[in-house]
Amino acid sequence: xxxxxxxxxxxxxxxxxxxxxxxxxxxxxxxxxxxxxxxxxxxxxxxxxxxxxxxxxxxxxxxxxxxxxxxxxxxxxxxxxxxxxxxxxxxxxxxxxxxxxxxxxxxxxxxxxxxxxxxxxxxxxxxxxxxxxxxxxxxxxxxxxxxxxxxxxxxxxxxxxxxxxxxxxxxxxxxxxxxxxxxxxxxxxxxxxxxxxxxxxxxxxxxxxxxxxxx
Length: 215
Known about the structure:
There is one protein chain. With 215 residues, the chain is mainly α. It is built from 9 helices and no strands. It has helices at 16-24, 40-48, 52-74, 77-94, 104-121, 146-163, 166-177, 182-189, 193-210. Helix 2 crosses helix 3 (52-74). The protein is elongated, with a radius of gyration of 20 Å.
């Protein structure tokens, strides 16, 4: 790996590809005690100048929530990890052009979301919402354990999310599961706040209807 200035990377510098892969799957990528407290902006500047260790800290700092985001959008762990690794490698290449208009984390949310939307656009359509099975009625003496009911409800919600269009799903996940504000979601998805509000309304209405039998 060479620094972006054209000079060789310093001896012992981590290969960003290894740092990304290790952090996303939960494998330690070396000690970062000396740089861990630094804010994202400083680390991003250092990484843009060719500091692989600074970039490795950013990867480990953000990979958990980004992998969770990708999992909520794609529905399985392998695809989520692949999307996040691709997103970090793309970010590494784009760091010299990163102008810090948004925070590094928000910038990564945007890259990961776009990666996931691209993956979803290539998938076959999901099953329609009316194929979600209703909960089985049981009498009080034979009611299933609460954990089984909870698992079944979660599975039904996952299936209902899969039926939403990728754009509706992304807005719902970013708002309801990751707590982003409307302005942040608009930036991440490259749309207006009004569009975000409309998508959230439609997503919530569809999910409420799909989950009605489970109330």
